[in-house]
Amino acid sequence: MSSRFTRVMTVTLVLALFLIVFGSKLAVIDRFGSDLPNWDQWDAEGAQVFLPYFQHRLGFLDFFTPHNEHRVACTRALALGLLVLNGQWDARLECVVNAALHSALALAIFLYGRTLISRRWHGVWFAIVAALTAPPIAWQNVLGGFHSQQYFLLWFSLAALAWLLTAPSWTGRWWGGVACAGLALFSMGSGLLAAAVAAAVLGISDRPRAVWRRHGATLVACLLVFAAGWVLRVEVSQNEPMKAHSLADFGLAFWRSLQWPVGFYALLAVLVWLPWIRLGWLCWRQRNRVDPRLRVIFAAGLWVILQFAATAYGRGANGGWPASRYLDTVDVGLLVNALALLLAFSPVSAPRWRIWLRAAVVASWFGVVGYGEWQHVVQMFDVELPTVRTEMRERELNTRAYLATGDARHLDHDIPYPGKDGLIERLSHPEIRAILPVSVRPPIALDGMSNPPSAFVRDGVADPTPRLAEYRTWGSFTPAGAAAQGEWRSVPIVRPTLSYWKIEVAGYLGQPGLSLELISLTTGMVLATVVPTPLPRESWCAAYVRAPDTAAVLVARDASASQWFAFSEPVEMGRFSYWAWRLATGGRFIALAAGGAAILLFIGLSWLPGLNKPAPAIKPGHG
């Protein structure tokens, strides 16, 4: 194949993989997610960053203050950047950005792995990466805006290993590796492990004197980063109950991380990690002659195992299975083993019995891991994600009711913070109320007049349409039924602070004779027309419209004697919040289209000559 065609094929596959992973996560965000900040966000973002920012007392060092055992400076910086750009605190927007971060990481892993295997295995490697990163295995990270820390940890740690183990000292890539190792310290508390692993792998790559001569600068840099991480570590007494309290607890929690997703037989953990063990033996046997890229794959697996140990120690009470938020790290371990499997057991010239043995190992590995992951995905979609969706809707409802009424009894039920009094205190600040997301944000106060007065009335909806308790609504379904006709015109609305409005609509708006429009107060021109999709009928549906950039009035007209509609006060929505919502609603279509394109591409390319030409052999290096 020509080099130009090869580049086009690579770009197409890269784009397809990104969109498959990204679109799949967007679909989960749309179906099960929320824009409401949850739990840790109210402290680590709201109280410790946003409030000081608006009160003009936020300092640079405030980003590095501890949050539990971590210093999540990168997550805080990202959250503040999104807030400033958007003008609104929106957890859904953060989730969409997090999805892009993880999708880009999947892309980087795919591109790195494909340089090590022949072209005939690129399709298999593509499918493996997509299968392990597209499903919302770690759904807490997919639906938690605050969980960008997990992705920063993965990005910085893996990049540090890739550059520090392959780049000559003092080059640009080497400095990039040192910087990533340092930034990993400010992603999560276990960020110091990347520097430790890089130093350890280089330390055993040759005789001590040769190691020091070739990698002395790297070893010193890694030890300095590790020492800084050790000094910056934080102990939190209130989290003591979550730690492993015995060697048995630690061992069981650690083994279950190794074992995941194989929950049906513990000893199969050995099979899951067998490819990495073999790769480690190869790296040890060849020492200074091994290709540095293979050393990176081995180091990534070792880093994952140390993360398992850190999690088992810090969150291993009662030896439980790893929480969902740690499963993206587990997935990296599975990807490392899958790549090592393709490298170690690819069919080559060998006795027939050995080829059959390799085929059996490959089939066993993929069968066991695939079945275990399938079980987990089914459990997740049947139980875990629907439960999360119900909880988040309840939290939105209760928080919105409290903000609308001031009645703290609404917070006696499920809320997005561990304590009722703590949430009340955080919501007491006008700076926080001014940036609240759409789901709980108080609407723009709207008044108007109907002509004739009986055309539009408060809560004018037909049964069985529910009443919206937290919003004022007007509708053309009156005591006389749907026969009322006329116009409702609001008082002038000053220029809003955000770019879009969300308006709840019921009835048959969009049908002939029914309209809801924003009209310029100065020119009389129609600035926007509110049209819900789909038709709400006897329920409420959110409609979105660009906010006017000049003084305007909202005008509702009903010229139908047989149909009616109702609308609420508008709620302001940031520009990026709007586009995050649009992206999320189209996520499933993005993923399906990209997946179909990738399948067609592979089918088409399979007929082209030269596709199965082996990639350049991995040569021993002196890394």
Descriptive labels:
about 625 residues, alpha+beta, elongated, disordered C terminus, Jelly Rolls, 19 helices, 5-stranded antiparallel sheet, 6-stranded antiparallel sheet, 2 domains
What sort of overall outline do the alpha carbons produce when their principal axes are compared? elongated
Q: Secondary-structure element order, as H and E?
A: HHHHHHHHHHHHHHHHHEEEEEEEEEEEHH
Whole-Å distance between the termini? 31 Å
**Residues in helix, %:** 40-55%
- Rg from Cα: 28 Å
Biggest beta sheet summary:
6 strands, antiparallel
Low-confidence stretches: 611-617, 619-623
Question: Which structural category fits the helices and strands?
Answer: alpha+beta
Summarize the structure in words.
- With 623 residues, this protein is an alpha+beta fold.
- The chain has 2 domains: 3-236 and 246-387 and 585-605, no CATH class; 448-569, EmbC, C-terminal domain, subdomain 2 (Jelly Rolls, Sandwich).
- 54% of the residues lie in helices and 9% in strands.
- The strands form 2 sheets. Strands 2, 3, 5, 8, 10 and 11 form a 6-stranded antiparallel beta sheet that branches. A 5-stranded antiparallel beta sheet has the order 1-4-9-6-7, with no helix packed on it.
- Strand 6 (514-520) and strand 7 (526-529) form a beta hairpin.
- Helix 7 (148-164) runs antiparallel to helix 13, helix 9 crosses helix 13 (292-315) and helix 11 (247-259) packs across helix 13.
- The model is unreliable at 611-617 and 619-623 (pLDDT under 50).
Summarize the structure.
The protein has 623 residues and is of the alpha+beta class. It has two domains: 3-236 and 246-387 and 585-605, no CATH class; 448-569, Jelly Rolls, CATH 2.60.120.
